């Protein structure tokens, strides 16, 4: 069966974990990702040979290529080299390694020779170094003892790694945009496992998404530059959000100081289908060596439509890496008249990026919060940014988003074409995240809210603010986010008068915005004024809740939303059914997310982004995988595909994968059972209920048999299980029951009780067998039924899987805010129901009771 991108990702990452042993993840990535890329180069070589030479037997490409190489030699390799910019000799192909493994002739030295030889097969262009040094022995050192303590172990480990990619057709996977995604996924997984060592090469996906979406939605991007390019994830995330036409003409520029990471960038871009002539990636120190430079404009630098950057935070050695320290006269810094402090290079990277930003371009950079408020030269730079009107938006993000630091960071958006009176937008998104393991993570709804707020220049209480220049000047150019965006206090302040004299403050009632706006009459009828500015709740909160939720206005709103969501579901079910290999799944997902926002935006007091997250989760939890399979196989065929259910058995050296039946590739077996085998399922549930009843009856008899002088004690005490210390357990021993029945008078009461226990044991055994048997039959029936589903069943089950609870979840967005306010009302009622006088009276009564009790005590 064809594997989806998610399945390929899991396969590769599971393989990586199994194979790397104790090797550090940050180092193992160089071996795994390097060999994966070499497989791609080999597959491309054979594909180019097939297209150019049109061999007779295309099923034996390796043999045909070897024969053609013998016959035509340099003419053949020159032809392939002209097509690709490189070639891999037949004996050095990845496929030759696999052939050697199959024949038992594998030698590690051949892999080393192959990687070394590749450098000599690259077309030599002065301006083209995209493939040079990719497999340098200083980075992919196959003699490294970390791969194994001796040659045999190293050879085995590399052989296992080679086999991991053996079945993957890298050319087809690249054409389907799967290969690049898998590569990026592996980079992210290695970054997560590498911890603090990952900061040098990876920006978390959700942070990249914020920056990329803002740039893609606000800027016409034909060229993009990342001066601290890392793995290239920021460049590629921007690419993903551009149209296909824009992607074709986009030119990528990047510079990276660490050589291993520089190699990673080039491989990542090439695997994502970026053509060599569209990428200029350089290995160098961005600050020490300004690049790219335009010789004809030495004081301007090359300008780009977009600049993205996640530089080292507060780089303490930013101006110490070269013999000649940078000076304020450097064109990148001269506009600001001052250099950043030597111990904090944050603004040095910002100024470098800004220097290369075109007049109509957009820059997005990740920096620590200190740049917003630190003084001295950084304060001067900040002031200059405001005076020159470059700073467009500040986005405060949560702490602990990055694997290499727990500090909170911010994204700064800069532009050179802002209107003179344009305010600086300040967004505080620091409280919007979920916890995943040890990391904080932005959800899709959080990213969407940030991007929408920025693009539409929204001002939202407690979340965003548009600060005019005058306000910033009043704050002495201090841009610390809390100065501009005041947090909404969730805790309701205590009211002294309310505590002293009772009653809920009226201003707290007025603060129940949704209840006042939706069912004000219902709310007022539940309250009674007791004095000016204070009221009592005179209706039971449960009764009020029922009244409010059943109110025709609430019901009408819920019903209207439910109807709209049902239309939405039917629309997109039809679109999903039509998915084929030419369907842009990214666009389909984007359309679904945008439309749910449009629907919910028209309803007051409904959180649009919670609804957005509902749809995002549908894609995340299955539709992404299923849509890909539908594109490959067609809707109805994909729904009828089943695959082996592989389970892990054994431990240690005996750990292995074994098949345990079949599971639906799209439709879960459990869903088939719950929807198509309800009678059988009810029968099993009924048997399980009877089993539970039998257990309860036996437990009651055991407990009764432990009570001395009871009938059960006389008859059953001796047949209760006991441990080695002769302590009573909580069950009867079946053998003892049967043995006792043979020796006791059949007409006695003791016999009747023993017989009752025996019958319960017999019934329990039978029911247990029936449950197991019927459960097994039902599961087998479901496994068989997958391939036999009719069209109507396919439609029922897939809609149930993807959208089964969607209407309920969206309707809850109407009801939950109302429930929350009713809960607040109940809390306020409980807070102020006991006055100071009530408490004093209770204390007096308790003191009086204590005195009476003390008076009744008699000293003997």
TrEMBL record:
Can you give the residue ranges of the N6 adenine-specific DNA methyltransferase N-terminal domain?
A: 9-164
Q: Which residues form a coiled coil?
A: 677-711, 829-856
- InterPro entries of this UniProt entry? D12N6_MeTrfase_N, DNA_Adenine_Mtase, DNA_methylase_A-5, DNA_methylase_N6_adenine_CS, Restrct_endonuc_T1M, SAM-dependent_MTases_sf, T1MK-like_N_sf
Q: Record's PROSITE patterns?
A: N6_MTASE
What does the record give as the reaction this protein catalyses? Answer: a 2'-deoxyadenosine in DNA + S-adenosyl-L-methionine = an N(6)-methyl-2'-deoxyadenosine in DNA + S-adenosyl-L-homocysteine + H(+)
Q: Which Gene3D superfamilies match?
A: 1.20.1260.30, Vaccinia Virus protein VP39 (3.40.50.150)
SUPFAM superfamilies named in the record:
S-adenosyl-L-methionine-dependent methyltransferases
Enzyme Commission designation: 2.1.1.72
> DNA methylase adenine-specific domain: from which residue to which, for each copy?
175-489
A GO MF annotation of the entry reads: site-specific DNA-methyltransferase (adenine-specific) activity
Q: Pfam families in the record, alphabetically? A: HsdM_N, N6_Mtase
Q: Name one GO biological process term.
A: methylation
Give the UniProt keywords, A-Z: Coiled coil, Methyltransferase, Restriction system, S-adenosyl-L-methionine, Transferase
NCBIfam families named among the record's database cross-references: hsdM
Task: Please give the family membership noted in the entry.
Answer: Belongs to the N(4)/N(6)-methyltransferase family.
Its protein name is: site-specific DNA-methyltransferase (adenine-specific)
Q: Which organism is it from?
A: Macrococcus armenti
């Amino acid at each position: 069966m064809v594997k989806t991108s998610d399945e390929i990702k899991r396969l590769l990452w599971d393989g990586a974990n199994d194979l790397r042993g104790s090797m550090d993840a940050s180092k193992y990535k160089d071996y795994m990702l390097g060999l994966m890329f070499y497989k791609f180069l080999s597959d491309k070589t054979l594909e180019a040979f097939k297209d150019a030479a049109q061999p007779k037997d295309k099923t034996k490409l390796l043999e045909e290529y070897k024969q053609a190489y013998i016959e035509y030699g340099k003419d053949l390799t020159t032809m392939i080299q002209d097509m690709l910019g490189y070639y891999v000799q037949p004996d050095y192909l990845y496929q030759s390694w696999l052939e050697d493994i199959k024949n038992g002739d594998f030698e590690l030295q051949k892999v080393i020779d192959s990687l070394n030889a590749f450098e000599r097969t690259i077309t030599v262009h002065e301006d083209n170094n995209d493939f040079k040094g990719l497999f340098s022995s200083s980075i992919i050192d196959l003699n490294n003892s970390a791969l194994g303590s001796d040659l045999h172990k190293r050879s085995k480990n590399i052989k296992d790694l080679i086999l991991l990619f053996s079945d993957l057709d890298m050319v087809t996977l690249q054409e389907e945009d799967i290969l690049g995604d898998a590569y990026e996924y592996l980079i992210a997984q290695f970054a997560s496992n590498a911890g603090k060592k990952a900061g040098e090469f990876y920006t978390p996906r959700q942070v990249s998404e914020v920056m990329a979406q803002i740039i893609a939605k606000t800027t016409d991007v034909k060229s993009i530059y990342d001066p601290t390019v890392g793995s290239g994830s920021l460049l590629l995330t921007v690419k993903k959000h551009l149209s296909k036409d824009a992607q074709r003409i986009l030119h990528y520029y990047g510079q990276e100081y660490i050589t291993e990471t520089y190699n990673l960038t080039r491989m990542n871009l090439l695997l994502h289908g970026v053509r060599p002539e569209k990428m200029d990636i350089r290995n160098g120190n961005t600050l020490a060596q300004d690049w790219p430079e335009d010789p004809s404009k030495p004081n301007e630098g090359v300008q780009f439509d977009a600049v993205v950057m996640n530089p080292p935070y507060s780089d303490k050695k930013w101006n110490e890496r070269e013999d000649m320290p940078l000076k304020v006269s450097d064109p990148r810094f001269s506009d600001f008249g001052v250099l950043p402090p030597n111990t904090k290079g944050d603004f040095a990277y910002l100024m470098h990026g800004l220097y290369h930003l075109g007049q109509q371009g957009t820059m997005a950079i990740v920096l620590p919060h200190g740049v917003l408020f630190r003084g001295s030269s950084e304060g001067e730079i900040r002031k200059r940014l405001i005076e020159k009107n470059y700073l467009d938006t500040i986005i405060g993000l949560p702490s602990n988003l990055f694997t290499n630091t727990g500090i909170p960071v911010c994204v700064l958006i800069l532009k050179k074409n802002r209107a003179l009176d344009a305010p600086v937008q300040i967004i505080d998104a620091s409280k919007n995240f979920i916890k995943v393991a040890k990391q904080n993570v932005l959800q899709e709804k959080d990213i969407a809210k940030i991007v929408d707020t920025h693009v539409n220049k929204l001002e939202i209480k407690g979340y965003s603010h548009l600060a005019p220049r005058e306000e910033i000047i009043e704050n002495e150019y201090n841009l610390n986010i809390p100065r501009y965006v005041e947090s909404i206090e969730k805790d309701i302040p205590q009211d002294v008068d309310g505590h002293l004299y009772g009653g809920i403050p009226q201003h707290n009632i007025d603060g129940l915005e949704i209840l006042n706006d939706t069912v004000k009459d219902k709310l007022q009828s539940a309250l009674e004024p007791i004095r000016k500015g204070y009221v009592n709740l005179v209706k039971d909160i449960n009764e009020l809740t029922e009244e409010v939720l059943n109110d025709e206005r609430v019901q009408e709103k819920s019903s209207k939303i439910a109807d709209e969501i049902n239309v939405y579901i039917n629309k997109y079910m039809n679109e999903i059914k039509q998915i084929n290999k030419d369907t842009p799944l990214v666009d389909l997902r984007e359309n679904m997310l945008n439309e749910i926002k449009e629907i919910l935006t028209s309803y007051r007091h409904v959180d649009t982004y919670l609804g957005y997250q509902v749809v995002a989760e549908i894609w995340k939890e299955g539709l992404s995988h299923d849509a890909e399979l539908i594109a490959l196989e067609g809707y109805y065929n994909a729904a009828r595909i089943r695959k082996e259910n592989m389970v892990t058995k054994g431990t240690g050296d005996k750990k292995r994968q074994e098949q345990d039946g079949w599971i639906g590739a799209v439709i879960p077996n459990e869903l088939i059972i719950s929807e198509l085998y309800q009678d059988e399922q009810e029968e099993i549930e009924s048997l399980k209920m009877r089993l539970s009843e039998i257990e309860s009856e036996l437990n009651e008899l055991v407990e009764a048999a432990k009570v001395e002088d009871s009938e059960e004690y006389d008859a059953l005490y001796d047949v209760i299980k006991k441990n080695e210390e002769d302590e009573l357990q909580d069950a009867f021993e079946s053998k003892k029951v049967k043995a006792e029945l043979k020796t006791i008078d059949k007409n006695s009461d003791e016999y009747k009780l023993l017989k009752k226990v025996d019958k319960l044991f017999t019934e329990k055994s039978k029911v247990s067998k029936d449950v197991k048997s019927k459960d097994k039959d039902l599961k087998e029936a479901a496994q068989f039924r997958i391939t036999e589903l009719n069209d109507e069943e396919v439609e029922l089950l897939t809609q149930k899987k993807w959208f089964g609870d969607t209407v309920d979840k969206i309707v809850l967005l109407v009801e939950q805010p109302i429930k929350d306010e009713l809960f607040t009302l109940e809390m306020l009622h409980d807070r102020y129901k006991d006055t100071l006088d009530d408490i004093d009276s209770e204390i007096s009564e308790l003191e009086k009771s204590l005195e009476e009790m003390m008076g009744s005590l008699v000293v003997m």
